[in-house]
Each structure stands twice: as C-alpha cells, then as structure tokens.
Specification:
about 140 residues; alpha/beta; Rossmann fold; five-stranded parallel sheet; 5 helices; globular
Length: about 140
C-alpha cells in the first residue's frame, strides 16, 4: 500500500461461502481490507450504508430480500456514493439478471470467479483505479 494510506475497504455480497472466501483471500493479498460480507442484497445494502466502503463486490446471484435485489443494490450504491468502485461477480453467465447487470454499465467491471484468469483481471481493473495496490506475487495464488 502507499505510504500512510489506509487499506481499501471492501464489502462482498454473495451467497456462496466458497466465492466469499476466495475473493477475501485474493483481496487481502492485494492489500485490501474486507470489512463485511453479505449473503443477500438487503444485508449488503445495510452494510454498504453503514460502512461506506470504497469497493463493493456484488454477485449477480445474490438472493433478493425485503424487496432489494442485486440490481437495486447496484443502483443504490451508484446513487448514494458514485465514487464507490462496483465489481459485478458473474457466477452464472446464463442468468438473465447477470445479463441485465453487466449491460446496464452501473458497475466498473465484471468478473467470473470460474475463469482461471479472473483474479489477474480483477487485479488489473483494481490497479487502474487504486494504483497503490500490491501486485500479487508471480505464481502465488491464495
């Protein structure tokens, strides 16, 4: 991280414990701090509003709750904190919500955790926004 710079604070929203763990490990290797994890869109929205992180990662398959779905979550983050970086996690590219989320351009970029190049692409996208991030060591995958 850059000198005297606090880690980039992240909220992850996905129902998959495996994807959450994978993302947390990779983000922490980059020097980010995962401050909260949500299993549904309403919980993610509440965590976003209370923590105001710099980065929010939203799975297209995150369950809706209390009328809040992944699209509503993306819109709320963009409306309430336009400078927050939004990454869409596309766990199921065939999901119609995934297509709508990736086409509406309310996010900074999308990743597919099933793609073996996913985390290199994630690092490149984040490094373009946050140049102070650490580059992962060659050949090291958490």
């Amino acid at each position: 991280m850059g000198q005297n710079r606090a880690p980039i604070r992240v909220v992850i929203a996905t129902a998959s414990p495996t994807v959450r763990e994978m993302l947390r490990m990779h983000l922490e290797c980059l020097g980010c701090s995962v401050i909260a994890e949500a299993v549904n869109a309403a919980q993610a929205l509440n965590l976003f509003r209370s923590a105001m992180p710099e980065l929010v990662m939203v799975d297209t398959a995150v369950p809706a709750q209390n009328g809040v779905d992944s699209l509503a979550l993306l819109r709320a983050v963009r409306d309430q904190a336009p400078s927050t970086t939004l990454i869409v996690i596309v766990s199921d590219p065939a999901d119609p919500i995934a297509a709508r989320m990736t086409q509406n351009e309310s996010h900074d970029f999308a990743i597919d955790p099933g793609d073996r190049k996913c985390f290199e692409l994630m690092w490149r996208g984040l490094a373009a926004i946050y140049p102070e991030l650490r580059r992962p060591s060659a050949g090291v995958t958490p």
